[in-house]
Design goal:
Layout (H helix, E strand, L loop, with lengths): L7 H30 L4 E6 L14 E7 L3 H8 L9 E5 L13 E7 L8 H11 E12 L4 H17 L9 H6 L3 E10 L9 E9 L2
Parallel strand pairs: 1-2, 1-4, 2-3, 4-5
Antiparallel strand pairs: 5-7, 6-7
């Protein structure tokens, strides 16, 4: 694990993002996480754990929790939340979503929450997640997606600025299209709006998929 200061974009994002997203958590997103992550079982990988909003919602059904977070500032915040971990074993890893440092078929459950919007190569990250998931294992996803109609136009216009100030976040990312072309097969999906202003205008998908590798 590297503990350097990170890039300017990473440092800026780590300063403002947790406080902003706490509003969405308080408005109902924490409840969505709890309901969703209650399905995690066995050895679990959480990709892009950030400052740890998801951490308290993994149950004791998870025997080991591996948290991958490349942003040094967020990783320091995450280390302060380890008391919330219910799994018997846990690890925080400074990892690359395109080259995860784990053997094939390492995990029973993999999860990502508000991660795929900011990846430069989301298709490669989905392939890599599938590689480390056991055949028949579960991918739990919780992602914001591009809107439709006028909202889609707004997302297209706002994405260049959003990407600069939010460490690569793309409001116009077609996550469902990416997932359809991935090695995962969607088994459950729920269409929601991110709770709390101003995030309420942001569509989300929360669901599960099975690794078909």
């Amino acid at each position: 694990m590297t503990d350097g200061p990170g890039t300017r974009s990473q440092r800026f994002f780590a300063r403002w993002y947790p406080d902003l997203m706490q509003r969405a958590e308080d408005a109902g997103q924490a409840d969505i996480r709890a309901r969703h992550l209650a399905r995690a079982r066995g050895r679990a990988l959480d990709l892009g754990t950030g400052n740890g909003f998801s951490v308290p919602h993994y149950t004791a059904a998870v025997s080991e929790l591996v948290m991958v977070e490349p942003n040094p500032g967020l990783r320091k915040q995450l280390q302060r939340r380890t008391a919330d971990i219910r799994a018997t074993a846990w690890e925080i890893v400074d990892g690359d979503a395109y080259a995860l440092p784990f053997p094939d078929a390492s995990f029973d459950t993999v999860s990502a929450s508000l991660v795929f919007c900011s990846l430069d190569r989301p298709e490669a990250a989905l392939d890599e997640l599938a590689r480390v998931t056991k055949p028949g294992g579960t991918f739990l996803f919780h992602e914001h997606v591009r809107g439709t109609g006028l909202l889609r136009v707004l997302h297209e216009v706002a994405t260049p600025l959003q990407s600069r100030i939010a460490d690569g976040c793309h409001l116009n990312r077609d996550f469902l299209g990416l997932l359809d072309r991935s090695p995962f097969e969607v088994t459950e999906i729920e269409h929601l709006r991110m709770p709390g202003p101003p995030a309420r205008i942001t569509p989300m998908v929360v669901g599960a998929a099975t690794a078909c590798n």
